[in-house]
């Protein structure tokens, strides 16, 4: 079968465009926010009002800590995210690309709450300091700290902290 030059050109152009779409498709998908982990671990916060249980995701790597709760639009009331910094140090957090207002609970190596940043502002690039050095930060929905009467000196129980 013989093809005219125009037909060959049109078929070649169509294949080239199809290839370009196929190559660009995954690249766009990779630049979108990645799926968040769904594995949770139990954690308890012990305050004067009692023991309060949460199912938390633990962020252990630099990449996980950098992503945190970014791009999420909802978190169930009994959930949270724990950031493991692996050593006690001054910690600075922010709310860039985070749509959910949060309470940030700064925690020492032995599980003692050192400070609380309540009702942080969504989408803000303002830095939020731990004040004293922190080993970890627990993020829960805004209002949880007030609801359970959380204050510095209270305890967080999780395998990450000393017994």
Could you walk me through the main structural features you see in this protein, from its secondary elements to its overall organization?
The chain is α+β, with helices and mostly antiparallel strands and 163 residues long. The chain has helices spanning 5-31, 62-67, 144-148, and strands at 41-47, 50-59, 79-89, 92-93, 102-107, 113-120, 128-129, 134-141, 155-157. The protein folds into two domains: 1-32; 41-157, Protein of unknown function DUF192 (Jelly Rolls, Sandwich). The protein has three helices and nine strands; from the N terminus they run αββαββββββαβ. Mean pLDDT is 83; it is low at 1-32.
Key terms:
single chain, 163 residues, alpha+beta, Jelly Rolls, 2 domains, seven-stranded mixed beta sheet, 3 helices, globular, disordered N terminus
- The number of distinct helices, counting runs of at least 4 residues, comes to 3
Name the average pLDDT.
Answer: 83
Determine the fraction of residues in helical runs and give it as a percent range. Answer: 10-25%
Instruction: Give the CA-based shape.
Output: globular
Q: So, the CATH homologous superfamily of the largest domain?
A: Protein of unknown function DUF192
Order of helices and strands: HEEHEEEEEEHE
- The SS-based structural class is alpha+beta
Rg for CA atoms: 23 Å
Distance between the termini: 80 Å
Q: Which topology of the largest domain does CATH recognise?
A: Jelly Rolls
Strand content: 25-35%
Kindly give the count of domains: 2
Instruction: Specify the biggest β-sheet.
Output: 7 strands, mixed
State the CATH class of the largest domain: Mainly Beta
Show unreliable segments. Answer: 1-32
The beta-strand count equals 9
CATH architecture of the largest domain: Sandwich
């Amino acid at each position: 079968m013989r093809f005219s030059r125009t037909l060959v050109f049109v078929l070649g152009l169509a294949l080239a465009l199809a290839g370009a779409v196929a190559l660009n498709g995954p690249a766009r998908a990779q630049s979108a926010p990645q799926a968040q982990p769904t594995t949770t671990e139990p954690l308890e916060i012990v305050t004067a009002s009692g023991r309060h249980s949460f199912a938390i995701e633990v962020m252990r790597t630099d990449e996980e800590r950098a992503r945190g709760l970014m791009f999420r639009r909802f978190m169930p009331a009994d959930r949270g995210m724990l950031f493991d910094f692996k050593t006690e140090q001054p910690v600075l957090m922010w709310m860039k690309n985070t749509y959910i207002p949060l309470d940030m609970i700064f925690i020492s190596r032995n599980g003692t709450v050192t400070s609380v940043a309540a009702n942080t502002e969504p989408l803000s690039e303002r830095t939020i300091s731990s004040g004293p050095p922190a080993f970890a930060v627990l993020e829960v929905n805004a209002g949880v700290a007030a609801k359970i009467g959380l204050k510095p000196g209270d305890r967080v129980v999780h395998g990450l902290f000393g017994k």
